[in-house]
Design goal:
This protein has two domains: 86 residues; 124 residues, Distorted Sandwich (Glucose Permease (Domain IIA)). The protein is of the alpha+beta class and 237 residues long. Strands 1, 2, 3, 4, 5, 6, 7, 8, 9 and 10 form a ten-stranded antiparallel beta sheet that branches. The longest helix is centred in the first third of the chain and has 86 residues.
Length: 237
C-alpha cells in the first residue's frame, strides 16, 4: 500500500496571522495610550504654571498702578496745600501792608477833595485837604524815604508852602503841604505813623489845613486820587 503523503507549506496558518495582528494592535494601543497619557500629563503640569505667571503679572501691574495713583494723589494734595499756603501768605502780606498805612493826621475835617475845581487852583485840585489847627502833628502815611523837604513846596512851587514828599516801596509817593514846620530832611527814612511835620497855613491856603497827595512820581502833575488810594489799602478817611 502506498502511504498518504502529507504536504507541508511554509505559509503561516490563518490563526497565527490573526494572532500576530491582534498582538501588534494591542501593542500599538498600549504605546498610543502611553503617549496620550504622557501628553495629557504634560499639559496638566504646564497649565498651572501659565496661570500662576499670569496672576503674578496682573498683581504686579495692579500694584504699579496703585503706587502711581497714590503718588499722583499725594502730588495733587501737595499742590493744593502749596496753593492754599501761598494764598494765605499773600492775604497776610496784603493785610500787613494795609495795616501799615494810615491817615496823615488825627481829628480832622475833610474839605476840598481830589479833582475839585475852583479859583484857588490853576487846575483841578490835586489832593485831599484835611482841615486841622495849625501845629497839628503830621505823620508819614507809610514807611519810606524822604525825597523832598522844605519851602517853596519842596521844589513844586510856592503855592504848596512848606512841604514834604516821601517815596514808598510800592513805587508811590505821598506829599504833605502847607506845613508850619518840617521835621525831616532829604534822605531820611521814616516809619508809618512817625511825625514828619506840623500842619500850618503856608503857601496858597485859605485856612489852616494839611494838603495830602498820592503821586506816581515825586513831582507835581502825577497825583492820584488819595482818598481812593487810601481806601485800597484799607484806610478809611
Amino acid at each position: 500500500m502506498k502511504r498518504a503523503t502529507i504536504q507541508h507549506t511554509n505559509r503561516p496558518s490563518a490563526f497565527r496571522v490573526r494572532g500576530a495582528v491582534l498582538a501588534a494592535g494591542l501593542g500599538a494601543t498600549v504605546v498610543l495610550g502611553a503617549g496620550t497619557a504622557f501628553a495629557s500629563s504634560g499639559s496638566a503640569a504646564a497649565a498651572p504654571l501659565a496661570v500662576s505667571t499670569t496672576a503674578d503679572s496682573v498683581a504686579q501691574q495692579a500694584a504699579s498702578q496703585a503706587k502711581a495713583a497714590d503718588a499722583a494723589k499725594k502730588a495733587a494734595a501737595k499742590q493744593a496745600s502749596d496753593a492754599k499756603k501761598k494764598a494765605e501768605d499773600k492775604k497776610k502780606a496784603a493785610k500787613k501792608n494795609a495795616a501799615s498805612w494810615k491817615a496823615p493826621v488825627k481829628k480832622y475835617t475833610l474839605t476840598a477833595s481830589y479833582g475839585t475845581g475852583g479859583a484857588r487852583w490853576a487846575a483841578k485840585h490835586s489832593g485831599q485837604d484835611f482841615a486841622v489847627p495849625v501845629g497839628t502833628p503830621v505823620v508819614a502815611a507809610h514807611t519810606g524815604t524822604v525825597v523832598k523837604a522844605g519851602p517853596n513846596g519842596a521844589g513844586d512851587g510856592p503855592a504848596y508852602g512848606n512841604a514834604v514828599v516821601i517815596k514808598h516801596s510800592n513805587g508811590k509817593y505821598s506829599q504833605y503841604a502847607h506845613l508850619s514846620k518840617v521835621n525831616v530832611k532829604i534822605g531820611q527814612k521814616v516809619k508809618t505813623g512817625q511825625k514828619i511835620a506840623l500842619s500850618g497855613n503856608t503857601g496858597n491856603s485859605s485856612g489852616p489845613h494839611l494838603h495830602f497827595e498820592i503821586r506816581t512820581t515825586p513831582n507835581y502833575g502825577s497825583a492820584l486820587n488819595p482818598a481812593a488810594f487810601l481806601r485800597s489799602v484799607h484806610v478809611s478817611i
